[in-house]
């Protein structure tokens, strides 16, 4: 797989400086294909999974096109959730770090609209928002569309899935006809194709083609972690499995340097490898790794090309790779020459869905594992220290030391057992906060796949087969299973869910998609997490995860659905 560097893509020097500072070395496949086409001013339909670098793929050409001196809204980006809108806005700001005068504002439900209005009045070039809140601002005239030259739909199929089809069409219909329109989507259902036909001009299809990948015989585990606990989890796994040599992969040069610093600070023999290093430095690092002086080699994908070390026992995907091929290349670093190998992947939040896609496309099995508890690690550390002590007792004359200990014991009030326990405690070092989730196993990626209604053989994104658009299945993936308006939104199971009552129903001309879209848009939780939606004439019941119930009710307190005020409470 030939890497294309950002320097080869004729990017503005200010953006290139920001990209270099962010630590990215080479363009991902979607970036390499989409950036030149967008720079030509063409409309694009981009088909790529989450986590492939789509934001930079459309963000870099967009920033080149924006005029910082013009204090009018020039670009609009629609996203399905609050989380994604914030994430996209933050990445655009990082890319625009050295472009003075470019202002990016996210607008989404769940945040005070007056604060957003103040930000918009200050002069904004780029708005990133969820469809519902964008339409609110358009109605209030706080978002004016006459100067918009670029519209981008990010994760369009997810917006469709959440019931935003009409909103997307309404918003696009209000924008100037002379504009560039880009749409990025993991799948291409009929409704998405219809949007492309109605609102784009001869769009270029940019698609990341999946190659047939051969996965090596490696035991593969994954852990659901928080971003701030990754280092601790990695250290626990290093202590548990004690690999003589291991490799850890990060997506950026900065992350490589940060991780190396963290590991060295905890007493591990770690070294880093990235694209900014001179050949002499690289050779020195690799020599230390081959001879075992370095136990953990941390690298970016580009820097690791060409490395061939035969006895690597473990690979850590510290960051989930942006491309499926990178995953295969990474884990192939272990299990060489018939030796057993093991690979660990750390998934933060929505990255479990990227990992699920990797598992499916690579036709492999990635097994969920609970984070090792402090008790697990303590037991392992004790065993190691006791083994070292036994070896010392066997091979060393300790008579002088025994005499010193005996003299000290005579002077004090402690037993030899007390002293031994204290010395063992000192040898083990400080204990960190226990970050394991009570031994709860992460979700199986196969189960995640089934629950999300995606990837079913012979069906489309919503688990439907053939062209049944309005047959047995609901329009947004809900079955009218009971024939009385009780819709089942096929997502997470009923366990751990809370049933909420909403004071509107079919009599108010409200559909399940309206309710799902409002909950996801206002609260920011993923539409995937919403459970069954049981709709009756005057009211509706909806299941949401227990841990999100309070957030959903608070977010919906002042919300409206189809212009009607909503009252939401826990159903009794």
Sum up the structure in keywords.
Rossmann fold; alpha/beta; 7-stranded parallel sheet; 39% helix
Short description:
By secondary structure, the chain is of the alpha/beta class. It is built from 20 helices and 24 strands.
Protein described:
With about 575 residues, the protein is α/β, with parallel strands linked by helices. The chain has 4 domains: about 5-205, Rossmann fold; about 220-370, Rossmann fold; about 385-430, no CATH class; about 475-570, RRM (RNA recognition motif) domain (Alpha-Beta Plaits, 2-Layer Sandwich). The protein is about 40% helix and about 15% strand. The longest helix is centred in the last third of the chain and has 22 residues, at about 375-395. The protein is globular. About 40% of the residues are buried. Mean pLDDT is about 80; it is low at about 450-495.
Unreliable segments of 5+ consecutive residues: 450-494
Strand neighbour order, sheet with most strands? 5-6-4-7-8-3-9
Helix content: 25-40%
Give a short account of the largest sheet: 7 strands, parallel
Number of domains: 4
Q: Given the helix and strand composition, which structural class is it?
A: alpha/beta
Assigned CATH class of the largest domain: Alpha Beta
Task: State the CATH superfamily name of the largest domain.
Answer: P-loop containing nucleotide triphosphate hydrolases
CATH fold type of the largest domain? Rossmann fold
Label the CATH architecture of the largest domain. 3-Layer(aba) Sandwich
Strand content: 15-25%
Shape: globular
**Ends: how far apart?**
58 Å
**Number of contiguous helices:** 20
Radius of gyration: 27 Å
Number of strands: 24
